[in-house]
């Protein structure tokens, strides 16, 4: 599915903007395998010879990407079976999601009989940043594609996945694979979870789920996988009204909020409660080590932010313990008397990067601190980009996670981006930073509890 | 304080980057009153004649901005009293916040004896976007100044206020006044609340509080003011650990979370739980009408987002009721059969701006819907900036609040900004959008309950 040597694009179109055109264009950008457009009405599309049907392609083909009207899909699938293909991605909609269950069942019979593994129908398909396999039909100028990296995303909703990919592309986070699996003809979330669990280029798995047809298998697979790598789950349809909306969307059984929360907890899935949380947690898992516990050291150059950060950590079940005597003494030596050397450490408004260096280095050595939340207000006169070297160097060497908070206008945004690019997850909200530290702490606790 | 005809800048400095230089520069940009630098060691600063002391200024002066070492402040204040000045903003730190209570008491005695109203000490001072009175010493290239508008902000922490101002400046939201009041010598949050309650250019009041010395007066004043205009309160130090951090920061008594929550509720203060919430709520109050109730109509072009939005509304105590029959019929006529015409309304991935127009207009007429949450995924092939005209025109005419959600990379961000500039609060997070609708609904309910 992700690294085919050759792909037949069935339903390729010569008309710019049409789905069959956008997908063909996508496959011609970077993907190294051979691409065969299939369309009985064209001789050539985008400079490639076009075939009237799959059977007419002279060579062996690994995978079919199918974007033809629903009623033509069974015949295309039969052709693929005769051609000996083992995989198909059916983009076309018009099946069970609009009540056309009989047609979907027919396609499933053909697929299973011919041993064709199918992603879809009614989906966006797949994106692989390494092989550049890309069937997403959102135009590239509207939806950015992320660079290579360790985050993979399984999504029951194409739209949710598209937004996350676009976000990651814009912010510079690395992705491995994205799979929008639609109606799950014969490959579902459980199969995909198992697959990504074994995929060496996937370090973190994100899932958007509205429901599952295989609850027990899902929990088993998730538990198995989450011992190896973190799984972040966003469950939609947790309210009664949301569950009704699910019924009109993917037709899944949403299940109750409590059942899902329990299932996630049992399987060690880190639950995100919103889309931005999925993204925040994934960045932290991909970029930072896991904390050994929940004791957070807070550094700030604005006292109010220290107080708010403390509240946010406590609300999340984290601790903000007093500093060890030795740590306080070490910092005291290097900061003026009007700085507050407690936890939170307030380096005050005239702090420069050297005070940050002193505080971070002392916290890294302190065995009673498991992670660092470092707030930098770039509005102040004495802070400049040198603080970014200090933090990113510490983050490279550290065996404790470091996350940052920096909020404000353009100057602050630029510096936040530089921190991000240096691999330090940086948030404009203290709550987001604390939520994220809590998420990676929770995952570490789960792994320890299972290993005992 | 906000519109003096003349200002003495005591502690003006000729050295770029020094506080007394940055403030003087700020006062020379746009502020129309006369500015007199005071510094015994200079003849002229930035082209202005410099006076050795306040008494040497030949004309009457309304206000002193004081940025000299703490120990010199009493003498400066005596000079101001002799000069007949009625207001002073003391930027200087080094008083009760570092334990120097005696010096602060001395300054208070002098101020009260001479009837000088004082903002500070230990503060950033004030900013007024109309008079351009600006004592903030954050350099302008690091901290943007917001344009004229209806939001005012009272902050016990300079840093928190600075970030909000910078944010507003970058995002283009209008501010009226910002006041960082520091140690509250003889003007505190209660006085400022009363003042802004009467200030015609202030439509929405935001407060960052760590504590108050006048709990009962605060509740009374807040209740009086919040019947006229919304107050958004962010209380820091709600956890025990946060309260300890408050003691090291402003030395206030933080009070327990429950007491504050009850006080806010009693006084009709809309409680924000984080900095971004303050900002989100303020935008919605400033730009949109109040809803008549909690029934939300949701529009989306991505089904998953409709489900998540429904969950987020329900979690916030809002309702997502079924559409009235007439509304559904009206929309049905203008959208294809595969669209879902329920609440949430899913216009599906190939929706153009015309489907949005049909859905919004129908919801505006529907008496069983009080507010609209409109999700636009700009990643899709058929959406472009025409949907912005549709939404912003509806928002201009509407007597119901409309908020938007649009998430993603650069293309989506640009379009979100255009929506914002058209006066439609636009969020990248569904949770933020639902939280905000809940906040303005809560405020309307408070006002109705008091009026009964």
Tags for this entry?
Rossmann fold; 3 domains; 452 residues; 6-stranded mixed sheet; 40% helix; homodimer; alpha/beta; 15 helices
What is the top-level CATH class of the largest domain in chain A?
Answer: Alpha Beta
Number of helices of chain A: 15
Name the shape of chain A in a single word. Answer: elongated
Name the pair of protein chains with the most residues at their interface, and give those residue counts.
Answer: A-B, 83 and 83 residues
Describe the model.
Two copies of one chain form a homodimer. With about 450 residues, chain A is an alpha/beta fold. Chain A has three domains: about 1-125, Rossmann fold; about 145-285, Succinyl-CoA synthetase domains (Rossmann fold, 3-Layer(aba) Sandwich), CATH 3.40.50; about 290-450, Succinyl-CoA synthetase domains (Rossmann fold, 3-Layer(aba) Sandwich), CATH 3.40.50. Chain A has 15 helices and 19 strands. Chain A is elongated and about 80 Å long. Chain A starts with 5 loop residues before the first strand and ends with a helix. The model of chain A has no long low-confidence stretch (mean pLDDT about 95). At the A-B interface, helix 4, helix 7, helix 10 and helix 14 of A face helix 4, helix 7, helix 10 and helix 14 of B.
